[in-house]
Amino acid sequence: MLRYILKRLLLIIPTLIGVLLLTFTVIQFVPGGPVEQMVSYLRGKGAGGSEAGGAAQSVYRGQQGVDADKIKEIQALYGFDKPAPVRFWQMLKDFSRFELGTSFFHHKSVWALVKEKLPVSITLGMWTLVLSYLLSIPLGIAKAVRDGSRFDTLTSLLILTGYAIPGFVLGVILLVLFGGGSFWQVFPLRGLTSDNWETLSWTGKVLDYLWHITLPVTASVVGSFAVSTLLTKNTFIEEIRKQYVLTARAKGLSEREVLYKHIFRNALLPILTGFPAAFIGAFLSGSLLIETLFSLDGLGLLSYNAIMQRDYPVVMGTLYIFTLASLFAKLITDLSYIIADPRVKFDGVRA
């Protein structure tokens, strides 16, 4: 097992470098970078639009508006005065020390930006994760026990309907119905807290927070727990049909004892082993559409704005964090299989 862990840890390095190299290479061919945007701004065209990006290309070549020395000064300011391979190598050295650089447009370190936006994404991710597990596991068990019944058919129809509706579409429906659209003003339209949140009591702050988070979490949960519910149901049905269940019933055990003492542990292995990756993902995942729809300034919105603004330190820094966390999450998931079921072996090495 130690050999397997070391092998996986060593594979993280080339995988991480490959992801960063691919993204870095694509970035080099995307027009309208920070140098072009700054040149366009100096010419009075503004920054970020397609017109600015196209016009800036000719300016960047020193043909119009801004002299060549000023362009070189701007290139040096953003670090584009060096060849791409040199910049990539320097980025790898900095990332190895977890120095992610400074945002071109926010003028803050990437770490500071991530920590600033992380609470919003944690709020969405953790509530979605917890509620999905709390709802999907009992519902999946109930569907497995009542497989083929009217309850199973009806809940499957509701689950698949919710799964088919994109989260942002459901969010729009919820806003129209309960956010002061055409019907009822029950929940707020934006943010995680009210403007007077600091003046509220502790109980008032909790209630205000829950009041604000209800709609975005509902929009996220409805589509996400369908897979877990059906996975729970299918694994329980598979275990129910195995020989050891028939043996337990033949010994005179009640259905409740058979279900919770014998089937429960084995059937939940696929779900429990996937929990580490889901838990880590809850801290880092940011739903762009949900965050935008409900005006929640989280990691999803940060990443989107960084791409649109060509804020390369933020793009590469957040990609580095997300990729590294995902790779470790996959390793933890594999190891959790061994912890949950000692019969599982990797590469012929006994656990």
TrEMBL record:
Q: Per the record, GO CC terms?
A: plasma membrane
Keywords in alphabetical order, please: Cell membrane, Membrane, Transmembrane, Transmembrane helix, Transport
Q: Name one Pfam family in it.
A: BPD_transp_1
What's the protein's topology in the membrane? Multi-pass membrane protein
Q: Where is the ABC transmembrane type-1 domain?
A: 118-333
Superkingdom is Bacteria
Q: Where in the cell is it found?
A: Cell membrane
Q: Which family does it belong to?
A: Belongs to the binding-protein-dependent transport system permease family.
Query: Which PANTHER family did the record assign?
Result: INNER MEMBRANE ABC TRANSPORTER, INNER MEMBRANE ABC TRANSPORTER PERMEASE PROTEIN YEJB
Q: What is this protein called?
A: ABC transporter permease subunit
